[in-house]
Amino acid sequence: MTSETTFRITFVILLLALLAMRIYFMIKVRRSGGRLTPDDQAVEREGGRGVFFFRVVFFLVLISFLGMYIAGAEWFDAFSIPLPAWLRWSGFILGICAVMFWSWAQIHLDTQWSAQLQLIKNHRLVTTGPYARIRHPLYLGMMVWGVSVALLTANWIFIAVCVLAIAGVMWRVPKEEQMMLENFGDEYKAFIRNTGRFFPKI
C-alpha cells in the first residue's frame, strides 16, 4: 500500500513541473517586453476590481492550501477521501499529460501568452498546434491539471478548488472570446467555426 508521504512527494513533482513551465514562459514574455500584470482594460474585462481582488485572494488561499498539504497539516486528514491507490496514481499520470499538453499550447502562443485578458501590440491569431482544433487548450490543460490534483491528493479541499477553478474558466472564456472578436473580427469568427471551445469538433 502506498503511503501518504509518497503521494505528497509525487504531488510536489507534479507541482514543480507546472511551476517550471509557467516560470519559463513568464520570463520569456517579460524579456520580450510583454506585460505580466493587468492594465486597466484587462481589469474591466475581468469584471472590475472586485473580481480581480477575488482572483488574487483565491490564488493566495490556494498557495496556502498547497503548502499545508505538502507539509502534512493534520487537519487536512479530516477532508480525505478513501480513493484506491490506482486511482490516485492515475491522477499523477493525468497531471503529467496535462502539463505536457499545456506546454504544447504555450509553445505555440510563445510571447503572445498573457495570464490577463489583454493582447500585445501586433498580436496575431494563433491557429497552429493544439489551436488548429481547439480554441482554449491552455484552459483545457488547466482544468485537467486541477482534476489530476483532486485525484492525487484524494481530498475534498482540492476537489472544491478544482470545481471553483473550472467555474472561473467557464465564466472567463466568453469574455476572452468577446475580446478576440473585437480585435480579429471575421478572422476569429472563422476560427470559431473551425474549432471547438475545449475539444475538437466532431
What percentage of residues falls in helices of 4 or more residues?
Answer: 55-70%
Total beta strand runs: 0
Strand content: under 5%
Instruction: Provide the CATH top-level class.
Output: Mainly Alpha
Task: State Rg.
Answer: 18 Å
Return the CATH architecture.
Up-down Bundle
**Can you write the helix and strand succession as a string?**
HHHHHHH
The 3D shape can be described as globular
Number of contiguous helices: 7
The helix/strand class is: mainly alpha
What is the first-to-last residue Cα distance?
A: 41 Å
Biggest β-sheet strands, sense, barrel: none
Describe this structure in words.
By secondary structure, the chain is mostly helical. It has one domain (4-194): Up-down Bundle (Four Helix Bundle (Hemerythrin (Met), subunit A)). The chain has helices at residues 4-31, 40-46, 49-71, 85-109, 137-153, 156-184, 186-194. It is globular and about 55 Å long. It starts with a helix and ends in an 8-residue tail after the last helix.
